[in-house]
Amino acid sequence: MKITKTTAAGMLAALLLPGLAVAEEPIASAEAPALDVEAPFAPLPTRVVATFGEDIPRAYCTPARPCHIELEPGERLTDTPTVGDSSDWDVVAKVQGLPPAERPVIAVKPRWRAGTSSLVILTDRRLYWIELVNSRKRHTAIVSVTWPDTDARARLAAAERRIEELLLEIGNELWRIRVDAETLGKALNPVQYHFPVESAPGSLGPTASGGSGGQ
């Protein structure tokens, strides 16, 4: 036990003046975290959805409850994710799913004395910048991102597919109109369709095929 001046004074006062109480100096724990103390209950995990190019996401992580950053399916890391304070933050790159739709997932966990830092992720499509906060009161379980460029490409592809469907429908409708017109023509002039009219050699007008000339 560490004996301080206040503790010694209290022991001496207890011997000389019984009944006199002297407050002892609290002993600081060498293992106490530098940040706020652990909350009496675990905070509910949350999911943050940020829009790429508009928002700077912030992830609240704890040593016992790491954060996970989801990237776009099919996106590939071009370098190791970099954290500002690598001595107090641990970063691990994982993969979820199978090719070609596999998704990179970055797990981030602070140490007890870690302060606020930042995470930079380089991929074949984008550069991500995320703020990291070591917190005992809030927990960001997952950070997801929406990508306006991907959404625009998806809408364009859907519009192109719809145009192809409309062109196919128009072609089918034109074919049906042609068939209906031919059917109507046969009904109005069956002789012309069943016995084609041809011009006889040397005659001035058409004669029925197979018929005899005039007498």
Roughly what fraction of the amino acids lie in strands? 25-35%
- The CATH topology name of the domain at 45-145 reads Immunoglobulin-like
SS elements, strand count: 11
Fraction of residues in helix: 25-40%
Please name the CATH architecture of the domain at 45-145. Answer: Sandwich
Any idea of the CATH class of the domain at 45-145?
A: Mainly Beta
**Annotation field: number of helices:** 3
The geometry reads as rod-shaped
Question: How would you summarize this macromolecular structure in one to three sentences?
Answer:
This protein has 215 residues and is α/β, with parallel strands linked by helices. It is built from three helices and eleven strands.
Any key phrases for this structure?
215 residues; alpha/beta; Immunoglobulin-like; 3 helices; disordered C terminus
